[in-house]
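User: Fold this; tokens only.

Assistant: Input:
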Amino acid sequence: MLTEKSIQSIKPEARVRYVADGRTGLRLRVYPSGAKKWVLRTEAAGRTREKVIGEWPQMPVAEARRRSGTMPRHVPAAPLTFRQAAERWHSERIVPRYRVSASIVWRYIERDCTDLLNKRLDAVTRAQLVGVIDRKKADGHNAAAKLTRLLDRMFRWAAAHELVAVNPMSKIEWRDLEIDRAEPRDRLASDDELRAVWDLPAPHGPMLRFVLLTACRVGEARGALADQVADSIWTHGPTKNGKMHSLPLTKTAAQLLTAGWELRSPEALYQVMQRAVPGLRPHDLRRTAATRMRQLGVSSDVIDSILNHTAPKLQRTYQLPDMMPAMREALTLWEKDLLRRVAQRAATRRTGLERTRSVA
């Protein structure tokens, strides 16, 4: 195979000569003048044809191979199974970025792709993947959509690492899968529901109270540790956007994290919340906290900083203010309002009970 260095060392001769690039039809035509051009030689119906691809060095050898369709493909000595590739993708891409919730991603692979686990990755077909996604619809269209996104990410990673020659997910369209893509949730917790969540006992109650006070993701709260706090600032990550996040803690939030909480599975947390407040999900608490802060007059920029949302590129490049004081002020304001809401409901309930007793 030709290299840039070997091409440079080729000397012109009295006649035009050809230097083959391996066993492909790509050749380098070397002229007596020293000029070098890429040509693609093909044979059809007993005739040999040549097509000029470009001139070297303006067109490097790699580009000539790409344009001529003769780019060599790397074939692994020992092709990986679907499970082996999934394990490698999960450890390289998912675990470093989603430390606590990485196990949830793996359950999608191990539980829903059982028919594929022992197949060679490069032998998995588009039809087999569609079948796996179709069966997942029984758990709801949101679950099927999430599995689709995970498989797409995994196979794009596999294609980039040349574990597959063709990405079977690349031609699968959402409309062909007939998955109803749900609108973003807008569920907010009422004051009564906030009180119900706040009153939940351990092990789930303390962590959910921490989520309410900080507006963090439940997965981030699951991985929160007291030794991540310095000067009342909780630094954790990498988070969903791939970066570390520093968040000031209010007095109540700091006390909760210092005491800690026993971890249970995400499924158990979901079931506990459904029993306490039917229809309310753990992530709805984050939305509720952000909405209530906005109603208290906190600016959207400060709320985005608390939520760790990535700012637009120009803003990230040219606006680098210290948001920590504003974030601390906003979270302190929200804590005061939240404690007032849950205490007010408790007081109302006690007053009603006292009136009932007096009537009796």
